[in-house]
Amino acid sequence: MKAQKTWPTMRQSQVLDAGLPAWRARLVLFLLMVGSVALVGRAAYLQGMHNEFLQAQGEARYVRDVTIAATRGRILDRNGDVLATSAPVKGVWAVPADAREMSKAQMRELASQLGMRVKDVRQKVESATGGFVYLKRQVAPAAASRIEEMKLPGIHQLPEYRRFYPGGHVMSHVLGFTGIDNSGQEGVELAFDAQLAGHEGRRRVLRDRRGRIVDDVADVSPPRNGRDVTLSIDSKLQYIANNALQQAIQDNKAKAGSVVVLDARTGEVLALANAPTYNPNNREKLSGAQLRNRALTDTYEPGSTMKPFTIGYALERGVVRPQTVIQVDYGYATFGKHRISDVSHKYAALTVSEIIERSSNVGTMKIGMRFTPNELWGMFHSVGFGATPGLGFPGEASGRLRAAKTWRPIEQATMTYGYGLSVSLMQMAHAYTIFANEGNLLPLSLVRLDRAPQPTRRVFSAKVAHEVLAMMEAATQPGASSQLARVSGYRVAGKSGTAHKLSGRQYVKKYISSFIGIAPVSDPRIIVAVMIDEPSAGAHFGGAVAAPVFAHIAEGVLRVLGVPPDAPVEPLQVAQQWMEEDESGEPPPALADTSREASRATPSVKSATVRNVLPSHSLSGAAAAGGNL
After folding, report:
1. Do 224 and 198 form a contact (C-beta atoms < 8 A)?
2. Between 436 and 160, whose confidence is greater?
3. Confidence of residue 54 (pLDDT cuts 50, 70, 90)
4. Which of 202, 201, 203, 210 is nearest to 62 (CA)?
5. Which residues contact 222 (CB under 8 A, 6 or more apart)?
6. What is the count of structural domains for the chain?
7. What is d(CA 303, CA 416) in angstroms, rounded to the nearest whole number?
8. DSSP assignment of 163-217, as one string?
9. How far is it, in rounded angstroms, from Cα 626 to Cα 622?
10. Taking CA 214 as the corner, what is the angle to CA 209 and CA 217, rounded to the nearest 5 degrees?
11. Which of 341, 233, 346, 344 is nearest to 295 (CA)?
12. Residue 263 near residue 524 (C-beta atoms within 8 A)
């Protein structure tokens, strides 16, 4: 019998035999208890006493502040008709990571609804680095609804507003427009942006990982809508002015033009039109020329429309009276090598009234040269030349009226009949308020006024203002320089102007034709200023080009305003009444030969044919011909 195999007995570990010290177990237990207490304390601290950190981390992942758009205020005309309003639209945006999951068919349909190319939509989604990207702003509600129904991954919408202008191109230069963020960019929208814009509100929402709003948390601040602005503009009168201007541009094949209609009693702007124009509802293809509000931003040499101020100042100073005879030397005056000439009506002598009626450069110059440069500068400045009209409109031009100490004698001579200084059409309309308000200059306003404002200053006496108004009425009578300005049933007064344009350093045969008129003369209600730039259909004198536009506009405006027709009165009857009331009893001062006196005081004035007049002095080489009719 074989012996059984036996296995050796395993030997016990010496470490186990040695055992562990009791203090080590107690130490481990103590450390575990301390750690547990620390964790509990930290948790209690964070969640009970100082939970801002955890709250901020949670909100950073799921809570967002959403902007609540404020409705921009409306722009209304003086009668309450809406000129600009805000329509609700949507901004379509995407979470790029989710939007990349769209199929090609979904991408094509989305692009179609947005009116975009597929590659442009894809590029916006794929190139975005954050968690948000706008695909398109101000999407029409119908298209936005169709996109929402498609339930595309990662595509979301936000409420927005888009500006709408019912008047389209008729009101464009007055109203301007807003940008993509609904802030004013041009015109009234920019000038009154602080009042129209309002303030956005904010609400706090809870979003899921796909950016979808799960719940509203709180209203942080409610939106404050913008306030409405009521303009002085009358939309009916604006249409009349705009249509007349557009027709004149077409008939005269002109480059551009402007019209301003003022309330002669309050200085409110009733209409303001420019050509070329644009549609503020569709600004995709615009040029800078279309955007310019020429009546306020463009300046020109006013030509003969300046003559009433020179004559009025002479009447105010007592140098002449309406029937004072001035030797005009058959329409020529020389100073050394220079010459001033009249276009037509070559008379040996004219009364002061006839100088306005026949638009004589020579006669106006001879009267104006009786004053010092400082005296004339002070008068020009007092009627607003060289300063902005004060409407607060973006880009208002101040024109150019240099300091009197820099005037050369030749410049003083040409300034008396409208060359050597520059103005805007609004400045000229503003200045003519003195003749409609008994010598007082009124402040202008682009917003509706509840009552007539206080005059800015008195420029001429009431007597002088009436005398000049009567002279300008005579200028619109048959055979006078502005006879085409006549309006059936109404007495009107006004002055035409024609000025050569400067090209480089020379004056060329391109013209600015203008007319500024007041109606009705018996009780002035409106002032209409017209400027036509570069008429090229044959006629170019202000009396032939701009005066008929005035007549068309004035007739329509007076009838819309319900102004009753004037009673027939002789043109110079008012002036004659003022003369009869003069208490001096002395005969009018005669200027039998002021040309010789002026020639001793100043070198001379250049004629239209001379081409070496420096533009830096704003002297028109065409002063003789251009400033006449």
Report:
1. yes
2. 436
3. low
4. 210
5. 68, 201
6. 2
7. 9
8. EE-TTGGGSHHHH--B-TTS-B-SHHHHHTHHHHH-B-EEEEEEE-TTS-EEEEE
9. 5
10. 115
11. 233
12. no
- CB contact at 8 A, 236 and 560: yes
Evaluate whether 154 touches 94 at the Cβ level (below 8 Å). Answer: yes
Residues 400 and 355 in one domain: yes
Which residue's entry shows tokens 């000229």?
428
Quick one: CA dihedral 47, 53, 59, 60, positive or negative? negative
Q: Is the dihedral of CA 185, 125, 87, 140 positive or negative?
A: positive
pTM of the model: 0.79
- Do 223 and 247 sit in the same domain of this protein? no
Q: Say if residues 446 and 187 touch (Cβ distance below 8 Å).
A: no
Task: Return the structure tokens found at 123.
Answer: 């590029």
**Strand residue runs (E) in 336-482:** 338-341, 349-351, 440-441, 457-458
C-alpha Rg value of the chain to the nearest Å: 39
Cα three-residue angle 159-164-170, rounded to 5 degrees: 170
User: In whole numbers, what is the pLDDT of the chain averaged over residues?
Assistant: 83
**Contact at 8 Å (CB) between 214 and 206?**
yes
Q: How far is CA 217 from the centre of its chain?
A: 44
Max distance between CA atoms of the chain, in angstroms, equals: 177
Comparing CA positions, the residue from 39, 598, 83 lying closest to residue 363 is: 598
How many alpha carbons fall within 13 Å on the CB side of residue 294? 21
What whole-number distance in Å separates Cα of residue 182 and Cα of residue 138?
Answer: 10
Q: Are residues 304 and 203 in the same domain?
A: no
**Interior angle at CA 378, CA 372 and CA 383, nearest 5:** 135
| Tokens matching residue 77 | 């005309």
Catalytic residue set: 304
**Inter-residue contact 509 to 500 (CB < 8 Å):** yes
Burial class of 497 by CB neighbour count within 10 A (0 to 12, 13 to 18, 19+): buried
Q: Domain for residue 493, yes or no?
A: yes
pLDDT at 322: 95
- What range does the domain containing 556 cover? 235-277+297-626
Bridge partners of 162, per DSSP, are 87
More confident residue, 575 or 433: 433
Q: Is the pLDDT of residue 187 over 50?
A: yes
What are the Cα distances from residue 460, in Å, to 147, 197, 432, 467? 67, 42, 12, 11
Which of 230, 260, 285 represents a domain boundary (last residue)? 230
Compute the average pLDDT of residues 335-348.
79
Are 263 and 117 in a shared domain? no
Model confidence band, residue 248 (pLDDT cutoffs 50, 70, 90):
very high
Q: 510 Cβ partners below 8 Å, 6+ apart?
A: 500, 501, 503, 534
Closest listed residue to residue 359, CA positions, set 91, 623, 36 = 623
CATH number of the domain within which 407 lies: 3.40.710.10
Q: pLDDT tens digits, residue range 413-456?
A: 999 999 999 999 999 999 999 999 999 999 999 999 999 899 99
pLDDT band at 9 (very low <50, low <70, confident <90, very high): low
The average pLDDT across 325-343 equals: 85
CA distance 586 to 592: 17
The whole-angstrom separation of Cα 314 and Cα 460 is 10
Strand 338-341 versus strand 269-275 pairing type: unpaired
